[in-house]
Amino acid sequence: MKICNICHRISATDQDHLDCIQKRRVELENEDLKNKIPEKLDFAKNPNDLGIEVRAILEHLSKEKKSSN
């Protein structure tokens, strides 16, 4: 038995829980997607070409990313 590195609970196997591994993988993919959104839309180069709603969403995601660091 060992302690899961992700949830810090006891694991019956000598590995991390499979659901914890999958949950962490999904979280990392979501974070990576958030980081790439402005790059995909060339947000940094030409923000005036985007609609008001899209700019608001991207600004919100950028603030969320900065506050979590």
List keywords for this structure.
2 strands, two-stranded antiparallel ribbon, mainly alpha, 69 residues
Secondary structure blueprint with pairings:
Elements: E1 2-3, E2 10-11, H1 18-40, H2 52-68
Antiparallel strand pairs: 1-2
Helix pairs in contact: 1-2
Description:
This protein is mainly alpha-helical. The chain is 58% helix and 6% strand. The chain has helices at 18-40, 52-68, and strands at residues 2-3, 10-11. The chain has a two-stranded antiparallel ribbon with strand order 1-2. Strand 1 (2-3) and strand 2 form a beta hairpin. Helix 1 (18-40) crosses helix 2 (52-68). The two termini are 33 Å apart. The model has no long low-confidence stretch (mean pLDDT 79).
- Arrangement of strands in the largest sheet: 1-2
- How many strands? 2
Q: Residue share in helices?
A: 55-70%
| Helix run count | 2
Low-confidence stretches: none
By secondary-structure content and strand pairing, the structural class works out as: mainly alpha
**Overall geometric form:** rod-shaped
Distance between the termini: 33 Å
Order of helices and strands: EEHH
Quaternary form: single chain
Write down the Rg. Answer: 18 Å
Quick structural summary:
The protein is mainly alpha-helical and 69 residues long. The protein has helices at residues 18-40, 52-68, and strands at 2-3, 10-11.
